[in-house]
User: Fold these one by one.
Assistant:
Number 1:
Amino acid sequence: MKVRITGHTRGLGKSLYNQFKALGHDVKGYSLSTGYDINSQEDRQKIIADCKDADVFINNAWSEYYGQTKMLIDIIACWEGDKTKRLCNISSKASFNDTDINEDLERYGENKREQNKIIEDRIRIYGPHILNVILGCTDTRLSEDLEGDKLNPDDVSKWIVDMLLCDNMYFQSVTIDAKQLNYKSKQ
């Protein structure tokens, strides 16, 4: 399978990239460090053009300027009606909060709420197949300022890969969190 991932150079994206690669898939990533800025319409269009013949697209990279949300809209439009395509959007439980620990996390939650709404509005539309993964606190750069139990990116990525490669069930939305919901700000 041809797998394409935004935000593939660290955290969950890197783990997903490595998992698919280890299984022998044709994997390509798009990250700021490799010259792709999802905030740029021009860069998003380059990614979309490169993903037209991909089988799986993982919308992982987050941007406070709605780049991830715009990427979601763009890839859905590109793949509209194609039941063979599999799209995975990485969302967050921060989307369930009206207010959060700080302004950055509030903006993050707002972005994720918008992505969830886009996907919810398509619940009866099949093509592309969309898996929306709503993650709790995951041990990545974004959670550096939080303490407590966190999800291991390798464990999460293994589960996501299994769900995306599953041919006998259609997973639409799932919320995953650490065993104990005990995280809080370190400050």
Number 2:
Amino acid sequence: MGFTRRDALRVLSGAAVSGLFFAFLKIPGAKALPRPPGALTEKAFIQYCTRCYRCIDVCPADALRPAGLFDGVPNLGTPVLDWKKCIFCQECIRVCPTGAIVKIPEDEIDIGNAVIDRDTCLDWTRKRRCGICYKACPYDAIRLEGRRNPVVIEEKCTGCGLCEQRCPTDPKSIVVFYDKYRRFDPPEGTFMVRLEDRVEPYEYPPPDFRTWFMRRLEKLARQHGLID
């Protein structure tokens, strides 16, 4: 029996579900590969990530995309984080079925580090009192030097970006960089053992299959520039 139209549709549907169909239609440019919060060290992450796209599907902030060909063939289909969009919801952490993303609580997430430009900061330049970044930080990672000038405490900063979002200057006087982020070593022994789950219940319960499938197609098409 020859290759029928039904067979072709079945192949295309499978490709769409995996995301590879869209990856080949438009190959993204080469860039560094920031990983989801809680990701294993890179070698282990590549080994245990099954490219199932669950973390990408569940992200309510569209902060994850699949890696393309120019990101390197071994990385193809693995999740890449846009840390500017990450809202620390932990949904990607909850749904990972293999342990490529460790199931950690929010207070152990670390994806970046905030840096203050003292030449433009309103407080440091004495243009006016501000303190907005200090008030915005939920992790007590900013202290005030001399009761006025903000200073980042690196060991407490998680890269959540709230300080940058609320900074009133243009350009921003405090910016988060993805140069200090925490990666986890794989546990000793086999991954067949269920890993400890230390996250809280879902904030965004997973949708029914039909809704999930349509959202996946729309999200992947948008990520690869096929729709606006």
Number 3:
Amino acid sequence: MTAQPALAPPLRVSRWFNTHEPISIASLRGRVVLLHAFQMLCPACVSHGLPQTIRARQLFAPEELAVIGLHTVFEHHAVMNAAALEVFIHEYRLTIPIGIDEAQVATSFPLTMQAYQLHGTPSLILIDRLGRVRLNHFGHIDDMALGGLIGQLIAEPAATAADMLDRSQTTSISAAAACGNDGCGISNTGSSAT
């Protein structure tokens, strides 16, 4: 028997942009959620991840797909602060809700990053209508593949989503050690985000 996908952990966000009130995964039940974890100084986030996230937001109806950005900083903390992110959001004209992943004092890895076991940025999480993680992907994902996965999840009726699950869609990519064309990865040593 194959295990059911896990419920998406709560978002641990210290500040929100582009929304009048905090967003929770529970408040989005009934919709598919695309959660894009990024850093503003990650080249692959700026060149691939964020544009892809914006395209997904433009292509799918908001009542079917909720799109959220999560600024999850695990390096260069001093320069990637809330004030810098606010300027970044303005300069790139980002209109999706964006939360700042809550920092943890004991480690450089923020709390939502740890809860979702992210390996770096960009990371893309797809959550189904029932609030379960169906895709956890580090690095760039092809637009067609992403669109197909989103379409499949949108097509699932909320009441029968558990019966229609294809577990082969849930993936985890091993982390890289530095920034490159595919993203900024973290080392698995000393991190609870493995």
Number 4:
Amino acid sequence: MTYVYSVNAVSVNDGTEAFQFMSSIPDDPDQEDDILTFLAGTEKYLMGRVLYEEFASHFQGKTATDHPFAPIYAATDKVVFSQTLESADWERTTINRGDLVTEVEKLKSEGDGYMIVTGRSGITRTLLHHDLIDEFRITVFPMLLGQGTREFELDDIGEFKPLELVSCRPGTNGVVVLHYRRRR
């Protein structure tokens, strides 16, 4: 799952004009319900140290009143792939120091549900390169950017990977949520 903040697949940093524009877009209740349902249905969240630290500082100990995602994240297993994170005190968190590709292949074979990896981290890029991502949920905000970080570089993709559209949900706010499945 990733938020591609612009039509040209660039992401933005907090505090920028683009981020402020994105934050000013009104919520679409149907899109919010879809996101909450999707997040609540996951078996595990996969993340690296940086995202774990950001998420934990933002969501740990919070309630639905603080942020609707907080209780969902608290109630779901989180696997942090890191060689440097010494401890993880957010409930239901495990640190995995093994080889990312091998460990994710193992997790995929053991689980019945789905796992979510978020963002444009090295973990996402490695899983994408090794064709371990089965579905893509991409949220596109209505703007073009001339600067920022590209979501994926050519080297991240590896070989040609065709996708099939599962759904395309335009919101009343101009935000479009795309759901693709890897065609195998």
